[in-house]
Write a structure and sequence with these properties.
With 233 residues, the chain is α+β, with helices and mostly antiparallel strands. The protein has a domain of 102 residues: Alpha-Beta Plaits (2-Layer Sandwich), CATH 3.30.70.3270. It is 30% helix and 14% strand. It has a three-stranded antiparallel sheet. The longest helix has 40 residues. The radius of gyration is 37 Å and the shape is elongated. It binds iron/sulfur cluster (SF4) (2 copies). One iron/sulfur cluster binds next to α2.
Length: 233
């Protein structure tokens, strides 16, 4: 004999209601996962792809990011500037100066290629996401806004214990050490000069006349009255 179809099976009256209430009770006792945004800010992972920040001091206007962007939504303008030679007889150099850097976030697909290809660490992901606009044209953000977003970029994660120090940090430390040594030498020279000034003319006069640099006011000029002049007989 064929099994009766489900619609024709006998049901206990009110079983559907009991099932529904059971689901409601189970859900009521569970921890809620709904965040009441904007009253509650969501806890985003630090490496979230919210928006792109520009560290324009690092940008050399190499145009790699604009060329590699699959959506062509990075707009860069620049001009060339001549930098005079650092030393006499040296050659002038020319460098690119950034005039405009903008990203159209209505076209951006957050692929991160621009950040990956930038050879000078000028672009970074920021978890900032609250930049919705009512007009799509306002989603093109210029360099000042992109620079502001740099302050929301999280610090890089700590290195593993025993990991080799990145070469950028080693180079920066070397430069900082050199600068500190140069500043210390300058300060020492200034202190010595000040000490010599405080010693005054008496000390200079007492000093060995043969000593180079003992040229205080009391030192007779080399061309004084007693010095025979050229042509005198
Ligand atoms: S994230 Fe991708 S689409 Fe967006 S600007 Fe960068 S390269 Fe272009
Ligand atoms: S790739 Fe980097 S350095 Fe080159 S233009 Fe883009 S942001 Fe600037």
């Amino acid at each position: 004999m064929p099994e009766p179809l489900p619609s024709t099976r006998s049901r206990i009256p009110g079983s559907g209601l009991a099932k529904g209430l059971a689901v409601t009770l189970r859900t009521m006792t569970r921890k809620t996962v709904t965040a009441q945004y904007p009253d509650t800010q969501p806890h985003l992972p630090p490496r979230s792809r919210g928006v792109i920040g520009l560290f324009e001091e690092n940008c050399t206007v190499c145009m790699l990011c604009a060329r590699e962007c699959p959506d062509w939504c990075i707009y860069i303008d620049s001009h060339k500037e001549t930098v005079p030679a650092a030393n006499p007889g040296g050659r002038e150099r020319s460098r690119n100066v950034l005039d405009r850097f903008a990203i159209d976030f209505s076209l951006c697909m957050y692929c991160g290629i621009c950040i990956e290809v930038c050879p000078f660490d000028a672009l970074f992901w920021s978890p900032e996401f609250e930049y919705a606009e009512t007009d799509i044209r306002d989603l093109t953000h210029e360099r000042d806004k992109l620079r502001e977003w740099m302050w929301t970029v999280p610090a890089p994660p700590a290195l593993d214990p025993g990991a080799e120090e990145p070469k950028e940090i080693a180079a920066a430390r070397k430069t900082a050490d050199k600068l500190a040594a140069a500043e210390a030498a300058q300060a020492e020279q200034a202190a010595q000069a000040e000490q010599a000034d405080h010693a005054g003319p008496t000390a200079s006069a007492d000093a060995d006349p043969a000593t180079p640099g003992a040229t205080g006011p009391a030192t007779p000029p080399a061309t004084g009255p007693d010095t025979p002049q050229e042509g005198e007989s």
